[in-house]
Amino acid sequence: MEWIKDTFGTHKPIIAMCHFRALPGDPYFESEGGMERVVELARQDLNGLQDGGVDAVMFSNEFSLPYLTKVRPETVASMARIIGELKSDIKIPYGVNVLWDPIASIDLAVATGAKFIREIMTGVYASDFGLWNTNVGETIRHKTELGAKDLKMLFNIVPEASKYLADRDIVDIAKSTVFNNRPDALCVSGLTAGAETDSAVLSRVKKAVPETVVFCNTGCTVDTIERQLSIADGAVVGTTFKIDGKFDNLVDQKRVQAFMDKVKSVRA
């Protein structure tokens, strides 16, 4: 678990989500403002997160709804442009997440110098996006072929809006994922972005794989973060940092600061 301190500079890190607005090719892309507006809003959110004191940031195409499980080239190109334009503003470690495509996430990470990715890399699911399959062997080989040996891989083992086709217990999933794939971390989620992760499920996963980093992946708030961090090795946080705690809104720096003040007291 030493990589956590090496990567984030602290224990129990908070990885904040910087959600990109809809991109070219997405159904809700706002062509009037164009990419310039997307970059402007991403910069605003990034600065609010950084100035609010988060430990790291993860850039994702969160508003590319409805999501694809194999994204198109324009999505990765657009995200690379945004991160490139933000490079001079980024002061903290960062990762990327191209929803829901691990190969594209690796490509973007390598192109932009990201330190980690988070994705669905294992399993087969019945989901809102149709039959959702993965190929972790191909994914890890692609990472190796690109020479990204230091890129950290955060495996989301509770995909949002979906369910394993086989009736498998979360403990079995955690154990087999660790044995077969050697993930740098496991991420445990709620139903959707902003939905609270079940603490009991989180606890069962951590107890099943105590030597593996486990992150609480969704739904942390200033009222729940102490409980979640008493179990997890860190958290990925997005919706609660936004104005009124609503998914569609932009980041509210005051909410970020209040949350991080709570986190610092927990660490102490």
UniProtKB/TrEMBL annotation:
Coiled coil feature spans: none
Domain of life: Bacteria
One Pfam family here: BtpA
PANTHER family for this protein: SGC REGION PROTEIN SGCQ-RELATED, ZGC:162297
Family according to the record: Belongs to the BtpA family.
Protein name in UniProt: Sgc region protein SgcQ
Species in which this protein is naturally found: Fontibacillus panacisegetis
